[in-house]
UniProtKB/TrEMBL annotation, chain A:
Biological classification of the source: Bacteria, Pseudomonadati, Bacteroidota, Flavobacteriia, Flavobacteriales
Membrane-spanning ranges: 23-50, 62-81, 116-136, 142-161, 168-185, 205-226, 276-294, 300-326, 347-368, 374-396, 417-436, 442-461
Protein name: ABC-2 type transport system permease protein
InterPro entries for the chain: DUF5687
Superkingdom: Bacteria
Pfam family, one: DUF5687
UniProtKB keywords: Membrane, Transmembrane, Transmembrane helix
UniProtKB/TrEMBL annotation, chain B:
Ranges for domain ABC transporter: 2-225
Record flagged with keyword Transport: yes
Record CDD domains: ABC_DR_subfamily_A
Annotated GO MF terms: ATP binding
Tagged with keyword NAD: no
Organism: Maribacter arenosus
Record keywords, A-Z: ATP-binding, Nucleotide-binding, Transport
Name of the protein described by the UniProt record: ABC transporter ATP-binding protein
Domain of life: Bacteria
Amino acid sequence: MFKHFVNLQWKSFFRSSNFGKGLALKLLMGFFAIYMMVSFAGLGVALYFILKKAFPDTDPMLIVSGYMLYWVLIELFFRYFMQKLPVMDIKPLLLYPINKGKITHYILVKSGLSGYNFLSLFFAVPFSIVLMAQGYPILNVLGWLGAIIGMVLTINYTNFIINKSDKVLLIIGVVILVLYGLEYFKVFPVKDYVGQLFYSLFENPILVIIPLGLAVGTYFINYAFLRKRLYLDASIKKKTIEATTSELGWTKRFGDIAPFLQLDLKLIWRNKRTKMQVFISLAFILYGLIFYGMDPYGETSTIFLFVGIFMTGVFLSNFGQFIPAWDSEYYSMMMSQNIPLRKYLESKAGLISVSVVVMFLLSIPYVYFGWKILAINLGCALYNLGVNVPVILFFGSFNKKRIDLNKSAIGNMQGTSATQFLVLLPLMVVPSVIYFTLKTFVSFEAALITLSVMGIIGFALRKTLLDKVTEAYRKRKYKMIAGFREQNS
Amino acid sequence: MITTQHLTKRYGNQLVLNIEYLEIPKGQSFGLVGNNGAGKTTYFSLLLDLIQPTTGHIVNNDIQVNTSEEWKPFTSSFIDESFLIGYLTPEEYFHFIGELRGQNKADVNALLSNFEDFFHGEILGQRKYLRDLSKGNQKKAGIVASFIGNPEVIILDEPFANLDPTTQIRLKAIIRDLAAKQGITVLVSSHDLMHITEVCERIVVLNKGEIVKDIQTSTETLRELESFFAG
């Protein structure tokens, strides 16, 4: 029986629509996955030597043990967002003569083999090998590795138990902060005590039975819980959120585009993926911190211009690149309605422009790193407003891949095609090249003024530019409708 | 009202629709029947300019649909769930469509109050988004949305499918009323021969993209259609 389940899993992977994606995208994703694996493995190999060098008197194993509690808590915290038990997958199995116990085992075992669990092992296995090479007793290291596996699985299954309530997430978050606070303000040396505890796992390999036992225990708690609830109105139920009607009356101020603006705001706020884009964009305001204040760049480096374009335009590129695919689910309705395409696009342009202004305002504190940073960001914001807004809308007319708004937000590449990569070229590279050239051959001021003036001209001509964009949308209407209709594209 | 001439639609080598001439007068309730793949939805999509004809054209109230968009203000339609916006509540959706068709909220609410029976208390004030409604209720919302804004032409693809019996009966009354009393041209497609003979004054049978029958509905029509489809 299990063979059949594995077979199903195999097919669902290779026959999934994602698998047929463009080669470039697959390479990129593959590259990213390999990068993560190599980073973790690299860390696993190097960590021993790094710690040995930094703290020559302490056993690296003891230091690692000290941080293990944090690892467990932080992993729990992140998994809460990333990993859900895929109960919907088993809906079709319920009708067949397979007993429910087996179905429950299938889904639980399957989750034990999920990629999240292997990520930690990519670190733990090389680290263990290094330990053995360094002459640590093999039995102890193997015991420790077994304990890690046990803990990973315990985290995996605990996550499904706590996933049912938001309160637990909050508690975990608070616990992490409190422990770190106690440590930081030297109230209580959490690391030392808990570290001792985890270190004993290494000292007495026999203790490996504790984490393994926990893993088995949490597995069966899940089993007992799920087995009883394998019904369409219990576990295998789509969660529906109670709708809240909102008037958004203030949008009326914007006249003709008000209905579209309302629609766009609801689109962003009521769908996971779009909502995520907003949070990601806001978080990217911290992007500057990585670069500013780094000496090697100098005050006016082209890197800063790139950072500026990216920071003030993060929502522009993240949200804008999928216009009008966000509306793909009902695009044919839009096209058969009495819709002024122009107003539709104006609303999107308005929304993106507001985001650019907001991001610029948020970036003002970076003036701490010198007024030139502020000047660069202002120039970038102007350029984004005047040039990049029409550019990204124009490229939108080449979008013809459907986006299902209901799908989850994380790692969702739906709607991505070569267009999304091509558009980065004019969006980010062109202004960087202009800036670099002028700055090198004329001056910093000239470069910045040129970009700003380009932005202002673009802004002044926005009506004409939008007309052109509207024309492009009209021309490609049938291709878009046909493309957006294709499910699983 | 709606004149179709030399209309063909071809995908590769396959001719999916081929209508030499079809005239639908104003105020007619017009039914389109045919098996899967007969070309019903293709014809409606051409009528709404969602796909391009290979040859020929459709003229809707003196406006050629694939060259001008002026037909949109007086034409409304519900083809399938892709005409709904899933993340809106039904009320918000009706009001949005109302805005697009130049109706304010009060106009829309007045119209909706006529359909309280039809909604059967399952659409309005449910605190649910359209995406969370059942298929039948989604369909109800979509059909009623197509009545907003005083359209002169209403196009409904398979309106009876997924509806419960009570709603089917009510919908039949509504459609008959639209054509007879309000002079609206109603185009309906269906797989259900019984419903369509009850509702439509005229029935056209499509088979593999061609018109094979064009009947003014009478008491004999149902039997005629049944014997045709029985093969």
